[in-house]
Amino acid sequence: MNEPSAHILVVDDHRDIRETLARYLVKNGLRATTAESAAHARKALKAASVDLVVLDIMMPGEDGLSLCRHLVETGSLPVILLTAMAEDTDRVIGLEIGADDYVTKPFNPRELLARIRAVLRRTSQVPKERDPIDQEQMLFDGWTLSVTRRELVDPSGVNVPLSSGEFQLLCAFLKRPKMVLNRDQLLDLTTGRAPTVFDRSIDNQVSRLRRKIEEDPKDPKLIKTVWGGGYMFTADVSDGA
Amino acid sequence: MNEPSAHILVVDDHRDIRETLARYLVKNGLRATTAESAAHARKALKAASVDLVVLDIMMPGEDGLSLCRHLVETGSLPVILLTAMAEDTDRVIGLEIGADDYVTKPFNPRELLARIRAVLRRTSQVPKERDPIDQEQMLFDGWTLSVTRRELVDPSGVNVPLSSGEFQLLCAFLKRPKMVLNRDQLLDLTTGRAPTVFDRSIDNQVSRLRRKIEEDPKDPKLIKTVWGGGYMFTADVSDGA
DNA sequence: GCAAACCTGTTACACCCTGTTACACCTTTC
DNA sequence: GAAAGGTGTAACAGGGTGTAACAGGTTTGC
Question: Which GO molecular-function terms appear in the entry (chains A, B) (predicted)?
């Protein structure tokens, strides 16, 4: 759990944001450098060995998107995008370009930290991360989920019927294991719906899913709650091959 | 699992979209060529051996639909359509013409990649890809459906008589396996009728078909219900060759 | 031509799925 | 330690789904 302190480059044209964020990251055991523009970021990247870039998508001059594209194409540096508004188009664009994650402003620094750690964990584990989205079969902790057959089989070989919503939720988790997913993301990933003000539907679906896959739903081992952040699927996931 | 890199032709009149998408595909281990119009696409198809075409349905000049129709009728090239809006009509038209799949804009590139891989998997299984619409025989999970004879034979060789409505429905499913089809699409695909307000006819036909082909109609394995979405045929389908 | 058999859309009702609400409990903050 | 706010989940309501029953239409057999 104690990484040898990863180095984060924070790129944002707002001084407040980038410095506060950098301080917060340092306070939490990471190293951080700031850059106020895409040009400064390029210099910083040449000067020091950076492990991950947090990048505002909207900046004067060369904007975040084009730098992001550059980063993703050339080096294999993980990128987390900051997007001003929860615009669907931005999100799609960000993922298209190949950002590893995105966070919408105003963001919770804890959430961002969790995402940074999740991305670092992912990118350091696997030499080259593969998109598990089209896996037909996924395994975790003795369980088997057949995506095409929409069936879940427990370690002893018994079929566990899932509702459509539970199936979707489990898929979302399995595609992004060991990553903190907040409720809005999960809602988007499962139903595509936009979050409303007091939406507890994800909490309820998680509760229902836990009842089916956790040995002791009161002390869940597979789906952990990240207080103030969301949920995280903790088991190792592999494809059926 | 590691194909010798399939070659995708991306046809879209928006430069941003086609280039970003092409880059994304290449980054994920595929080869990609772009074309900005149907005419350019035709040239590209003659010049290089393409495995699959991703095609925007709305383009100035000769539009995507007519090129799609051409591709499906002449060559045996799988096609994935991009449709601007989630217009049901577009979707149905695309499937009618024989596109292998469609994706609505704004699309999630990961999803598109997954669909591309799924289509490639499906079409590469069969030595010679043909439009499954005129398949004489289709196999799934031990069953045989003879399209010309309109006969269904179960795994033990017993003939299971189908009404014409049930036959139509099963055909619709077999032509689009592992795809969620909503009730309106199924209604259109089977009867060509437009949906009325409270139309439960598809539900009833599904129920009747399940009674004939599912081992346990109460716990269906072949035709799964997608709550709020429609139905999905889950078995692998191949032609009789 | 007639009746029986069959097919299929409609209706009705039981059941299931899921979002909302409410409240107890927990974590964090001050 | 109290206040504020996040989380777990039971209970409920609304709406989606399965399917039996029925009616009208069509086909089949004679």
Answer: phosphorelay response regulator activity; transcription cis-regulatory region binding
Q: Average of pLDDT values for B120-137? A: 52
Question: E strands, chain A, where?
Answer: 7-11, 31-35, 52-56, 79-83, 101-104, 137-140, 143-146, 151-153, 159-160, 180-181, 223-226, 230-233, 238-239
The answer for residues whose C-beta is within 8 angstroms of residue B230's C-beta and 6 or more apart is B180, B181, B182, B183, B185, B186
Provide, as residue numbers in chain B, all residues whose Cβ is less than 8 Å from the Cβ of A97. Answer: 20, 24
Query: Under 8 Å CB-to-CB from B14, ≥6 apart: which residues?
Result: B56
Pick from A73, A92, A163: which is nearest to B108 by CB?
A92
Residues of chain A found within 8 Å of residue B118, distances taken between Cβ atoms = 134
C-alpha span between B33 and B78 (Å, rounded): 15
Give the A window 145-204 contacts with B, CB below 8 Å: 148-151, 161, 163-165
Q: B110 in contact with A at a CB cutoff of 8 Å?
A: yes
Q: Which CATH class is domain A7-125?
A: alpha beta
Residues of A within 8 A of B178 (CB-CB) are 148
pLDDT of residue A113: 74
**A29-77: pLDDT as tens digits:** 678 888 888 888 888 777 777 888 888 877 776 666 777 777 766 555 7
Domain residue limits, chain A: 7-125, 132-239
- Mean of the pLDDT values across residues A175-181? 87
